[in-house]
Amino acid sequence: MHTILITGGLGYIGSILLKTLQKKNNRILCLDNCNFNNYKIRKKLSIKIIFFKKSISNEKFLKKIFKDYSINKVIHLAA
Q1: pLDDT score, position 1
Q2: Which one, out of 28, 36, 52, 63, has a CA that is 20 to 30 A from the CA of 4?
Q3: Phi and psi based region of residue 52 (left: phi greater than 0; alpha: psi -120 to 50; beta: remaining)
Q4: How many Å apart are CA 38 and CA 15, to the nearest integer?
Q5: In terms of C-beta density within 10 A (0-12 exposed, 13-18 middle, 19 or more buried), how is residue 18 classed?
Q6: Could you give the 3-state DSSP secondary structure of residue 13?
Q7: Is 2 in a helix, a strand, or coil?
Q8: 8-26: per-residue pLDDT in tens?
Q9: Are 75 and 4 in contact (CB under 8 A)?
Q10: How far is 38 from 60, CA to CA, in rounded Å?
Q11: Residue 23 contacts residue 49 (beta carbons within 8 Å)
Q12: What DSSP letter does each residue of 14-79 carry, written as one string?
C-alpha cells in the first residue's frame, strides 16, 4: 500500500484518478484549494480520502503532511 498525495485532486482528471487509485488499496491524500467550486465533486466521491482544503503554496503545511503521513508518491495536478 502506498500513501499518495494528489494536488488539485478535485478537478475532472483528479477525481477520476482518486477513484482509480483507491481501488488499488492505496491511502489517498487530496490537496485542493477549491477555487473553482469543485468541493461539490468531493461530496459525490464514494471513496475514503484524506482531504485538505489548502493551497500548494503553503510550504509549512506541505512539510507537515509529508512528515505526518509518510507520503510515497505525489501526483501534481494543481494549476
Answers
A1: 80
A2: 36
A3: beta
A4: 10
A5: buried
A6: helix
A7: coil
A8: 888 888 888 888 888 888 8
A9: yes
A10: 24
A11: no
A12: HHHHHHHHHHTT-EEEEE---TTSTHHHHHH--S--EEE---TT-HHHHHHHHHHHT--EEEE---
2 grid coordinates: 502506498
- Do the bridges between strand 73-76 and strand 50-52 make them parallel or antiparallel, or are there none, so unpaired? unpaired
Phi then psi for residue 68, to 5 deg, are: -70, -30
Find the helix or strand (DSSP H, E) in which 3 lies.
Answer: strand 3-7
Q: Which amino acid is at 55?
A: S
Average confidence (pLDDT) over 48-77: 92
C-alpha 22 chain-centroid distance: 11
